[in-house]
Specification:
The protein is built from 19 helices and no strands. By secondary structure, the chain is mostly helical. It folds into 3 domains: 191 residues, Growth Hormone, Chain: A; 57 residues; 242 residues, MFS general substrate transporter like domains (Growth Hormone, Chain: A, Up-down Bundle), CATH 1.20.1250. It is globular, with a radius of gyration of 22 Å. The two termini are 28 Å apart. The relative contact order is 0.13.
Length: 499
C-alpha cells in the first residue's frame, strides 16, 4: 500500500519528469519507420540513415553536459532549456527541405533530448528519498520500454496517415505540455557556487565519442570496404579519449566528475549498465531478424511474437524497484538475475531451433523479466552514492554507460553473426543480406539442397550470435558480485561506501 504522501509525490513527479523522458526515448525509435518515406520525399537515399545516427550521437554527447549544467545551475531551470531546444528542433525537423538540413535539425533535437533523459533521472533523485527511488526506476523502465514499443508503430501510422513530417510535429504539442508540467516541480537553487564550464573537455569529449559511434556504425555494415573508414574513426576516438582523460585529471572544473567516476562502487555499477544496455538492445535488434529470416514470420507476426520480450522488461524493472524500496537490498537482485539471464540466453541459442513458434514467447517472457532487473539497481545505486551535488553527473554517467553498451553490444553481435557466415560460406553471407532486405525471394532459383544448406548455416550463425549476447550478463554478474554497495537506505552516502 502506497502512503498518501508517496501518492502526492508520485503525481507531482511522474508527469513532470517522465513525459520529457518519454519524448526523448520516443524520438529515438519513432523515426525508424518513417525513413523510407523521408528518403522518397527528400531523396539522397544513401544518407538517410544519418537521420537516426545523428540523434544517437547528439544525445550521447549531451548527457554529461546537461549533468554538469544541472548540478551547477539548477536542474529545473536547465530542463526548461532542454525542452525548449527539443521543441524548436522538432519543428525544424518537420520543415527541413533536404536530408542535410534534416540531419542538422536532428542533431539539435538530440542535444535537447539528451538533456531530457539525464535531467529527468536527476530530478527523481532530487525529490525522492534514496530507497523510494527503486520504485521510480521501475516506472522509468516502463517509460523506456513503452517508447521503444510504441515508437515504430506510431511512426508508421503517422507517416501513412499524415506524412513523415507528422512524426516530428507530434513532439511540439507534447513538448509544450512537458514545459507546462515542469512548472509543477519545486524550483531548486544552483548546487555549486561560481560556475566555469569546461569547454576544452566538451570539445575533446565530442571528438572521442562521435567518431567512436561512427566507427561502430560503419562496423555494423559488415562491409570490408568500410573497414578503413571505421579504423580512422576509431583512431581519432582513441587519441581524443587519451587527451580527454589527461585534461579531466588536471582541469579545476572538469566536464566529467573523474573523482566520482573512478570510485570502485561507481565504475563497477556503470559497467553493469553497459552489460544491461548491450543485452537488451542486442536482443531487440537481432531477434526480429531471426524470426523473419530463420522462422519465416511476417513483420506483423514478428511484432506479436516480440511483445513478451518488450513488455515484460518493464515488469522485471518494476519488481526490482519494489524489492529495493521494501528491503533496501540492491546488489542481490542482479547477483541472481544476471546468471539466470545468461542461462536463458544459452537456452535461446541452443534450443530455439528445436522450439515451435508458440513456445518461443515463453522463453522471451522469462528472458525479459531478467533483463529488466538490472537498470533500477544501477540508477538507484549511482544516485545514492552521488549526493545532491552530483545527481546530474551521476544520471549522465548511467545514461552514457547504457548508450555505449547498446552501441558496442550490437556491433559485437553483428560482427559475430556476419563473421560466422563469412568464414563458413561467403556466398551464404551474401544471400543472408538478401534475406534481410527482400525475404525468401532471395533464395529463388536455388536448388532444394542449397536452400536447406543456407537455412542451416544462417540458423547456426544466429546460435553463435545468441551465445555472444549471453556473454554480456557474465560481465553483469561479475560486477554485481563485487559491487561495494549492497544496500540502499534513506541516508545519502558518498561514493565508495559499502554496506
Amino acid at each position: 500500500m502506497i502512503e498518501p504522501a508517496q501518492k502526492r509525490l508520485f503525481f507531482t513527479v511522474f508527469p513532470s519528469v517522465f513525459l520529457p523522458m518519454f519524448l526523448a526515448a520516443l524520438d529515438g525509435t519513432i523515426v525508424s519507420t518513417a525513413l523510407p518515406a523521408i528518403a522518397g520525399s527528400l531523396g539522397d537515399v544513401e544518407h538517410v540513415s544519418w537521420v537516426v545516427v545523428s540523434y544517437l550521437v547528439a544525445t550521447t554527447i549531451a548527457a554529461p553536459v546537461y549533468g554538469r549544467l544541472g548540478d551547477a545551475l539548477g536542474r529545473r531551470r536547465v530542463m526548461f532549456m532542454a525542452l525548449t531546444l527539443f521543441v524548436v528542433a522538432s519543428a525544424l525537423c518537420a520543415l527541413a527541405p533536404t536530408i542535410l538540413l534534416l540531419t542538422l535539425a536532428r542533431v539539435l533535437q538530440g542535444l535537447g533530448g539528451g538533456g531530457l533523459l539525464t535531467l529527468g533521472q536527476a530530478l527523481v533523485g532530487e525529490v525522492v528519498p534514496p530507497r523510494e527511488r527503486g520504485r521510480y526506476q521501475g516506472y522509468t523502465a516502463t517509460i523506456f520500454v513503452s517508447a521503444s514499443s510504441f515508437g515504430p508503430v506510431a511512426g508508421g501510422w503517422l507517416t501513412q496517415s499524415l506524412g513523415w513530417q507528422s512524426v516530428f510535429w507530434v513532439s511540439v504539442p507534447l513538448g509544450i505540455l512537458a514545459i507546462a508540467l515542469t512548472f509543477r516541480l519545486k524550483p531548486n537553487p544552483p548546487v555549486v557556487g561560481k560556475f566555469r564550464f569546461d569547454y576544452i573537455g566538451l570539445i575533446l569529449f565530442t571528438l572521442a565519442i562521435a567518431p567512436l559511434l561512427l566507427a561502430l556504425e560503419e562496423a555494423r555494415k559488415f562491409d570490408l570496404a568500410t573497414l578503413p573508414l571505421a579504423a580512422l574513426f576509431l583512431g581519432v576516438a582513441i587519441s581524443a579519449g587519451v587527451l580527454l582523460v589527461r585534461h579531466q585529471l588536471r582541469a579545476p572544473n572538469p566536464l566529467l566528475p573523474v573523482s566520482f567516476l573512478r570510485q570502485p562502487a561507481v565504475w563497477k555499477t556503470n559497467l553493469l549498465a553497459v552489460s544491461a544496455g548491450a543485452t537488451i538492445v542486442s536482443l531487440i535488434t537481432f531477434l526480429p531478424i531471426y524470426l523473419e529470416v530463420v522462422r519465416g514470420t511476417s513483420p506483423s507476426e514478428t511484432g506479436l511474437r516480440m511483445l513478451p520480450l518488450t513488455a515484460f522488461i518493464a515488469v522485471g524493472a518494476t519488481l526490482a524497484g519494489q524489492i529495493i524500496t521494501r528491503t533496501g537490498r540492491s546488489a542481490i537482485i542482479p547477483c541472481i538475475g544476471q546468471p539466470v539471464l545468461c542461462g536463458l540466453l544459452l537456452l535461446l541459442a541452443f534450443l530455439a531451433p528445436l522450439m515451435s513458434l508458440g513456445q518461443l514467447p515463453v522463453l522471451f517472457f522469462a528472458t525479459s523479466l531478467m533483463c529488466g532487473t538490472a537498470m533500477p539497481v544501477v540508477q538507484t545505486t549511482v544516485q545514492y552514492l552521488a549526493g545532491p551535488a552530483q545527481l546530474g553527473s551521476a544520471a549522465a554517467s548511467v545514461q552514457f554507460a547504457r548508450s555505449m553498451g547498446s552501441a558496442i553490444g550490437t556491433a559485437l553481435v553483428g560482427a559475430v553473426l556476419f563473421g560466422y557466415l563469412d568464414v563458413i560460406d561467403p556466398d551464404t553471407a551474401k544471400l543472408f543480406a538478401g534475406l534481410v532486405e527482400i525475404g525468401p525471394a532471395a533464395l529463388v532459383g536455388l536448388s532444394a539442397e542449397r536452400t536447406a544448406a543456407v537455412q542451416t548455416e544462417v540458423s547456426n550463425a544466429f546460435t553463435a550470435a545468441f551465445v555472444m549476447i549471453a556473454v554480456f550478463p557474465v560481465l553483469g554478474t561479475v560486477m554485481a558480485m563485487i559491487m561495494p554497495t549492497r544496500r540502499i537506505d534513506n541516508t545519502q552516502k558518498t561514493a565508495g561506501a559499502a554496506d
